[in-house]
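hey so i finally got around to running the thing on that chain from the lab meeting. sorry it took forever, my laptop kept dying and i had to restart like 3 times. anyway pasting the input first so we r on the same page abt which one it is
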Amino acid sequence: MIKDDFKIDFKNKKISYNPKGSGEAYTVNALYSYLQNLFARAQNMKYQIPIMATSKTECFLINGWTIDENARKYLKEGFLVLK
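ok and heres what got predicted. didnt touch it at all, straight out
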């Protein structure tokens, strides 16, 4: 599951891949949906949303969020751009 494979560091605004993850690759759209749902939870609303979509296949990381190179290896079918 995506929630077990990607780690979200709210304090340092960093998205990384869990070294003990499943090895499954996810679409950029799946990551977008996961992050939107995660940040919509009451306990996470105090944090700035990390991602913005311009289409179903193109997203931007915003508000100072980053994703490490290893995590990018587990994304497919789309573009994730740092803004």
